Every structure is written in C-alpha cells, then in structure tokens.
C-alpha cells in the first residue's frame, strides 16, 4: 500500500531531511586519510542522539542481509557500494567512500547517500561519482506530477548508459515516509511512460549506484556489504524526494561549504 502524504506531512519529512543532509555534509568533512570508519560511525551516533532522532538502520533485519544491523551508517569503501558494514578500517589516500544514512524524527523518515574520494582522487573515480550525481538529478527532474515512475527509472538509466556504465537491477530506490522502506520500488533503469502515476504526496528515495566495469555484485561474509563482482570501484548517490503540484521537492539537500561555515545560504547536491 502506498500512502500519499499531505503538505504538512511532507514538511515534517523535510525537517528530518534537513538533519540528514546536514549530518552527511558534516560526516564528509570528518572522513579523511587516517580516520577509522568506526570513528565516523560513532560521530554519527552522537549527532543522532543529540538531535533526538532515531536511526532507521539500528536493528534493521530485512530479507537480505544478516541482521540485525547494529550501526547507524552504511560505510562502503572502494569496491563496496551498498550496505557497507562499519568496521575497523583506517581510510587510505585515494579511497572512495560512500556514506548512506536514514533516520526518523517525530515519526517521519528521510534517507540520503553520497560518495567522495578521500585524499588524492583518481579521475576515473570522479567520473564514476559524477555519473551517479547526474543520474540522480535526472531522476529528480523526471519526478513530475502526472508522470510515471518509469520516467524516473528511464532518466537514471539513460545517464548511466551515456557514461558507459551498466545498471544492476537488484537494488534501487524505494518509497519512504513513516518507515525507511515503503512501496514503490524505484528501479535505476526502465521505460518512460510505464509504471504507476506520480501523484502529489508520493515520497520516494531515488538512489542510482554504479560499478565501474560490471553490473554484477557479490555479498561479503558479513552478510551485508555488497561489492562489485569484479572488484572495480563503485559509487552511490541518493536523495529523498516528494512529488508536489509544483514539481519535485528534494527533502535531503546538503548545505554548501559556504553555508556550513556561515549559516544557511544555498542548497547543494
């Protein structure tokens, strides 16, 4: 069942989304060469507790994965792309890190992810990250009232293919609202004009993720961490988006570096 949200309820989700965006921006500054993944995880735990938020990941036990998940972040490094289990690992120069987080505040959820390189970047990694970010923006732009869910999926897939990447169909975006994972599934490739109608009040997490040279994946022995099957680098971008009469409303935009230093100024990706 898909629950359409009222304008007031979307506003409440936006409060959660603002916190998620701000914390992701903060965590991207915490991550650096020589920093342990568990330090990033514990930093996030403190911030979530201080805000009075609740992690959607803690004790999460889906049909995939080996639950319960006892962390508040997914931290995926290099060839890991989804559900990376935080562990004792010190970031090295050139590591590609993806951070994914979802929380609820006052009963309303928001979910977002970003990827970036720690230290000296490989240009190929930057292109891979760019592809996920451009695909995400294309998917957001396609989230128009009266359109179809396939429009969103097709827009994401078109960008991925234009960069020369293949798309895995096993994991994608999802509905979100009172819980982290709700209907519908939002595939990262599809056909325009197909699927459910995009009606104002629909809230979804759009999340393109890509592997550099494959669309096949494998799962670590930890039962959670998903990696590219061939060991190639990966990237992941995600925002929570509401369909409104005026068009898509992104609820998890992150502040720009200037906004983080001087107060709210503008929205970033």
UniProtKB/TrEMBL annotation:
Gene3D superfamilies with a match to the protein in the record: Creatinase/methionine aminopeptidase superfamily
GO molecular function terms noted in the UniProt entry: initiator methionyl aminopeptidase activity; metal ion binding; metalloaminopeptidase activity
One GO term (biological process): proteolysis
Binding site for a divalent metal cation 2: 111, 174, 207, 238
Family annotation (NCBIfam families): met_pdase_I
Family statement drawn from the similarity comment of this UniProt entry: Belongs to the peptidase M24A family. Methionine aminopeptidase type 1 subfamily.
Name listed for the protein in its UniProt record: Methionine aminopeptidase
Organism encoding this protein: Micromonospora robiginosa
């Amino acid at each position: 069942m898909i629950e359409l949200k009222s304008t007031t309820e979307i506003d409440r989700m936006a409060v959660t989304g603002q916190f998620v965006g701000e914390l992701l921006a903060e965590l991207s500054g915490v991550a650096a060469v020589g920093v342990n993944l568990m330090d990033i995880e514990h930093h996030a735990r403190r911030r979530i507790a201080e805000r009075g938020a609740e992690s959607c990941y803690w004790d999460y036990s889906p049909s995939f994965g080996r639950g319960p998940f006892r962390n508040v972040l997914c931290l995926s490094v290099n060839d890991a792309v989804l559900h990376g289990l935080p562990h004792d690992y010190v970031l090295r120069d050139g590591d590609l890190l993806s951070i994914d987080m979802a929380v609820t505040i006052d009963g309303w959820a928001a979910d977002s992810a970003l990827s970036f390189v720690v230290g000296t970047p490989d240009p190929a990694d930057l292109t891979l990250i760019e592809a996920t970010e451009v695909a995400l923006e294309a998917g957001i732009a396609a989230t128009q009232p009266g359109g179809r869910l396939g429009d969103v999926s097709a827009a994401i897939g078109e960008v991925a293919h234009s960069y020369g990447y293949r798309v895995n169909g096993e994991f994608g975006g999802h509905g979100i609202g009172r819980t982290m994972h709700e209907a519908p599934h939002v595939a990262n490739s599809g056909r325009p004009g197909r699927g459910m109608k995009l009606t104002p009040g629909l809230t979804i997490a759009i999340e393109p993720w890509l592997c550099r040279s494959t669309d096949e994946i494998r799962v670590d022995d930890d039962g959670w961490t998903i990696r590219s099957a061939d060991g190639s680098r990966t990237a992941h971008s995600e925002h929570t988006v509401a369909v409104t009469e005026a068009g898509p409303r992104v609820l998890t935009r992150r502040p720009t570096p200037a906004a983080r230093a001087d107060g709210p100024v503008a929205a970033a990706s």
